[in-house]
Automatic annotation (TrEMBL):
NCBIfam families for the chain: GPR
Protein name: Germination protease
Protein's organism: Paenibacillus faecis
Function, as annotated: Initiates the rapid degradation of small, acid-soluble proteins during spore germination.
Family: Belongs to the peptidase A25 family.
Propeptide: 1-13
Quaternary structure annotation from Swiss-Prot or TrEMBL: Homotetramer.
Single biological process term from Gene Ontology: proteolysis
Modification note: Autoproteolytically processed. The inactive tetrameric zymogen termed p46 autoprocesses to a smaller form termed p41, which is active only during spore germination.
Pfam families listed in its UniProt record: Peptidase_A25
Recorded GO MF terms: metalloendopeptidase activity
EC number: 3.4.24.78
Amino acid sequence: MNLDLRDYSVRTDLAVESKEMAETVYGGPVPGLNEQTEEQDGIRITRLDITNEAAARRVGKMIGHYITLEVPALRGQDTELQERVAAAFAREFDHFLSKIHIGNKAKVLIVGLGNWNVTPDALGPLVVENVLVTRHFFELTPDRVAPGYRDVSAVAPGVLGITGIESSEIVQGIVDRTKPDLIIAIDALASRSLERVNTTIQIADIGIHPGSGIGNKRRGITREILGVPCIAIGVPTVCYASTIVNNAFDLMKTHFSQEIGSAAGQQGQTRQIMGLLSELSENERLGLVKEVLEPLGHDLIVTPKEIDEFIEDIANVIASGLNIALHEAVNPDNVAAYTH
């Protein structure tokens, strides 16, 4: 079978979701994709390594390393849980830096992508507001910088519609001038699962394309383009309406099967209720939903109504985690003191 998931229109930026879809299509694990999963204190951590082009084509993601933290309870605004997630993120990010050979003296530029005027797209700028920046101290008073801090700068370049300039072009100018050793780009993503919206953090070493979460890929912030290693941090903040409708069919199918109870006429009765939809594959059903919605202009981008609170919380978690991971002097037990 020479199927390529990139031909499908399931909208997701998460490697774990792409992996799940690939395993469904191919009926089992994808060769060339290494996975390690662990769960602790309500935090599920998945580490994926896509090692060759064949696996990349099947999964629909680039060769590279991907780490995903899933915390379903993060929506509960539990401060203690948020602190645990920030600490777990910091540990994973620190290991990630080691894996791609970034030392503790490397100069870092943090880029907060997105539109600060649009709440679901404001993740990057909000993280930039709360990270500990130190480059000005290294430039102006290097002899007074305490041990345990590294050179960190940050910028929120805005979006093309506001500035008239591609974010990548702005970042290129900054890179040429300040010569960082690493770029960390933070952006909002899209998920195929409502459960993962605002509860999932993805780290990847493949860089990022601004606007990819809404299917608007442009000039990227990647090592190939900027000449500097680029780590992408993303959180899904939106779903497509077609994806939600498609998921609703799955939930209804499961509900009817449970209500019918007996395995013997379960399939027939479920088919009687849902018709041919019960027999379509996920991609076939999604194609049908999109075919119905898109001519009407109804394939909306949807975000939870509590997005204002969620986006602030998840931005603080990421900023706190970055402060711990990037600066050895930052005490993880008192990380709030290092955010604005």
